[in-house]
User: Which sequence fits this backbone?
């Protein structure tokens, strides 16, 4: 079906005019802009938004998978082995990896989330928190204490869908 | 112009000072209000956002912030540019705007010149900006700028013609080329013997008005006719190499010209500064009450805002023409239509 061209032109003008009228209309009558005046009003991002990566230090074994898979090489990990008391009495002491350093440089990070995906021990999580800009670029290097503090902002994992495969322990 | 308002005879130099001041106000006030009201606010609303909100109430001082920003920037020119001409080009564009406002009447005694060939002068002077744009493109020593300048020249020449031809209809109907008398003719005129609202030529010359507004849109290189400054393909065309206050001058000239062309269009088609003279019992320009000298500029300004709204509304709604479509539209649609319009106007003028 071919529609005549001129009404299309007027329709275009109508669209912009209607948008203008809606934007000018006060908020309580269903108008207002689609944008948010940021420092005063804040948007709440969806809970799965990729804001910042949080670290649960206890779960980390310094296996380096995240650092190796990072496309930007922005994760710096140093660790050492320690002897821990044996699980059963009389057994040999266990060797465990201890984290000395776990830094993510958010000046380099491109928020691809591969490190979160690849972590075998659930030590890295996405948090929707996004307000951590700094006046100095060096301050964007978050160390393991700061990354650990982000854990508080990580939302609860949503309920699995009915019939979904349960994660094996 | 102000001499009669103050009821004193000013010496020539003082009158000239007042004219310069008045012209600057007429151009810059129009440009400023168009940029704030339409470019900052209306465009934002049409895109469902609020636009500048921080500087002053509702961002009304944003303009001063922008001007301050541009004035601080370094005045760069490319190494291989033709420096003198490069620096002259924005001024030529701006000067053509100031020259245009000289023939626009703002009231029975509020005019800069009461020039008998006003329409002719207006059409001639409006094409000076082409020179500025062309040499800006050429002297930048940048192929994108050159392409932009050439496109601008091609487009402005192509759309100059329908604009001239559209105005010819008005000139035939008014029987004069004096802008002041065209305004008077509209406000004393009658439509088929009924003079209740005068005869604003937008009614009898509607096709001429349409062609004029489309041609103005193209002359101003506003979208959908913004091929010369197409930022996505030519990185702003002839303005690419300009920075700091020279870019600011181009920017002011662009929106000041919108204002001046809107003023000219309202004088030619919407009845200018006047109200229909029969409302107040005036019968000629000499019997007009003195308060029209104050009300006239306000009426002109509001009509200018309405027309500028139309220009900017179209600008924000439509995508850009392709170069060949642009030329075809001018030569194959607008010019024949304008010629037919002239023919009908002339025939009706003789018959009625």
Assistant:
């Amino acid at each position: 079906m071919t529609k005549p061209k001129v009404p299309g032109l007027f329709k275009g003008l109508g669209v912009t005019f209607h948008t203008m009228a809606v934007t000018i209309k006060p908020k309580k009558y269903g108008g207002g802009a689609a944008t948010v005046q940021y420092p005063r009003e804040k948007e709440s991002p969806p809970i799965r938004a990729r804001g910042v990566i949080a670290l649960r230090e206890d779960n980390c074994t310094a296996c380096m998978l995240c650092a190796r898979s990072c496309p930007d090489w922005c994760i710096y990990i140093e660790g050492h082995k320690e002897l821990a008391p044996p699980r059963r009495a009389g057994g040999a002491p266990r060797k465990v990896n201890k984290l000395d350093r776990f830094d993510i440089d958010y000046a380099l990070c491109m928020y691809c989330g591969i490190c979160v995906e690849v972590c075998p021990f659930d030590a890295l999580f996405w948090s929707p928190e996004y307000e951590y800009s700094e006046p100095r670029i060096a301050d964007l290097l978050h160390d393991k204490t700061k990354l650990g503090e982000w854990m508080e902002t990580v939302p609860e994992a949503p309920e699995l869908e009915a019939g979904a495969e349960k994660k094996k322990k | 112009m102000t001499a009669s308002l103050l009821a004193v005879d000013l010496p020539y130099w003082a009158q000239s000072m007042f004219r310069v001041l008045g012209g600057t106000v007429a151009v810059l006030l129009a440009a400023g209000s168009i940029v704030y009201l339409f470019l900052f606010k209306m465009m934002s609303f049409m895109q469902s956002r609020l636009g500048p909100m921080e500087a002053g109430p509702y961002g009304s001082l944003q303009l001063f912030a922008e001007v301050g920003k541009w004035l601080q920037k370094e005045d760069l020119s490319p190494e291989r540019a033709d420096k003198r001409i490069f620096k002259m080009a924005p001024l030529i564009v701006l000067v053509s705007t100031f020259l245009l406002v000289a023939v626009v009447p703002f009231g029975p005694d509020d005019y800069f010149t009461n020039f008998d060939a006003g329409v002719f002068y207006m059409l001639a002077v409006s094409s000076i900006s082409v020179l500025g744009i062309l040499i800006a493109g050429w002297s930048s020593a940048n192929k994108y700028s050159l392409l932009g300048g050439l496109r601008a020249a091609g487009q402005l020449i192509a759309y100059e013609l329908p604009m001239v031809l559209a105005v010819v209809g008005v000139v035939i109907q008014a029987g004069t080329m004096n802008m002041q008398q065209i305004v008077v003719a509209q406000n004393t005129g009658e439509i088929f013997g009924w003079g209740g609202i005068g005869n604003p030529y937008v009614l009898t010359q509607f096709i001429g008005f349409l062609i004029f507004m489309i041609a103005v849109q193209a002359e101003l290189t506003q979208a959908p006719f913004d091929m010369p400054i197409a930022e996505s393909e030519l990185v702003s065309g002839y303005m690419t190499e300009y920075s700091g206050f020279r870019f600011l001058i181009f920017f002011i000239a662009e929106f000041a010209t919108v204002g001046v062309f809107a003023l000219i269009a309202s004088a030619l088609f919407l009845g200018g500064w006047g109200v229909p003279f029969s409302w107040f019992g005036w019968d000629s320009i000499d019997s007009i009450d003195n308060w029209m000298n104050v009300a006239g500029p306000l009426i002109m300004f509001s009509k200018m805002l309405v027309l500028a709204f139309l220009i900017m509304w179209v600008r924000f709604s439509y995508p850009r023409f392709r170069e060949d479509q642009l030329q075809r539209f001018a030569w194959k649609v607008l010019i024949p239509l304008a010629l037919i319009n002239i023919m009908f106007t002339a025939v009706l003028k003789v018959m009625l």
Chain B has one domain: 2-351. Residues 1-6 of chain B have pLDDT under 50 and may be disordered. Residues 2-351 of chain B form one domain.
